[in-house]
Write a structure and sequence with these properties.
single chain; about 45% helix; 434 Repressor (Amino-terminal Domain); 13 helices; alpha+beta; 5-stranded antiparallel β-sheet; Beta-Lactamase
Length: about 290
């Protein structure tokens, strides 16, 4: 671990980012054009004290999870992420791990969308990044680990995952998840990450095994879905999905389809995130039907 170089790199990246670039107000009394340490801490989900110790070269070795959070908060490019991992004494993530870091350009789009719920997902249905509006709508779904990272795995192994969809919509949502996963398998033929997930799903769920045998294929790009939110009730959302050229990541943008849903979303913004369950507490949310 190169503590001094790591400290210099983190300071330089923090000072190079304007608040507006990450969706924060500039404020009148700001002494620097860059972010404050407390803002980096907030964006990365860590304590201000730890950010200070990192920048002063006094910290313990950060974990790979913490480094990933810092990379997202500082909007690092893939090359900058790799450099960050090297300075911290870790190997950069392998190809699958790099794909699991939301692209910097997509993260910037999340910031620009403001109060419009949006998230970045991998082609396997893992939520890589969410803006604040999406967290209000879904809860934080970036902290799942293992196979629970994947929407389809939770959907077929955790009955509570389906509570977000009205009963009359669940069968169609189920078929769409399987058809979308089948499209990914075809595109990433021979990829052990993909084939391993499918094998574990086939072993864990008779329902999945039966649907998988139907060989339905469909990439999800745009649709309308009804969500059952635990605080504001039924929401009817139009979903647009923008896919990166390599089809490895998707930007999912959700907009209210009617006046009632728009008013309920405004109420949700007022209520905020207090007492909302998160991935860390095992909750599921609308991301279980995303993609």
């Amino acid at each position: 671990m190169e503590r001094d170089q790591l400290a210099d790199f983190l300071r330089s990246r923090r000072e190079a980012i304007s608040p507006a670039y990450v969706g924060l107000p500039h404020g009148r009394r700001r002494r620097t054009a860059g972010l404050r340490r407390e803002e980096v801490a907030m964006l990365a989900g860590m304590s201000v004290d730890y950010v200070v110790r990192l920048e002063q070269g006094r910290s313990s070795q950060p974990s790979t999870q913490l480094l990933g959070a810092l990379a997202r908060a500082l909007r690092l490019s893939e090359d900058e992420r790799a450099h960050l991992f090297h300075l911290a004494g870790h190997r950069p993530p392998p190809s699958d791990g790099v794909a699991r870091l939301a692209r910097a350009g997509l993260v910037r789009m999340l910031d620009l969308l403001g109060d419009t719920p949006a998230m970045v997902l991998s082609d396997l249905g893992e939520v890589l990044a969410q803006n604040r509006a999406a967290v209000l709508l879904y809860g934080d779904h970036t902290a799942f680990s293992g196979d629970r990272r994947y929407v389809a795995y939770r959907w077929f192994t955790e009955p509570s995952a389906r509570a977000v969809a009205p009963p009359e919509d669940r069968q169609e949502q189920t078929r769409r998840l399987v058809a979308d996963l089948r499209a990914t398998v075809g595109r990433r033929s021979g990829d052990p990450t993909v084939t391993g997930l499918v094998d574990r799903l086939r072993a864990a769920s008779d329902e999945f095994r039966g649907l998988w045998a139907d060989h339905e294929v469909a990439v999800r790009r745009a649709d309308r879905k009804t969500l059952l939110h635990p605080r504001v009730g039924r929401l009817v959302m139009d979903c647009e999905t923008l896919v990166t050229p390599d089809q490895g990541q998707r930007l999912l943008v959700l907009t209210p389809s009617d006046t009632e849903t728009r008013e309920r979303l405004e109420l949700l913004r007022v209520l905020g995130v207090q007492e909302f369950p998160t991935a860390a507490t095992g909750a599921t949310g609308a991301t279980d039907t995303a993609g």
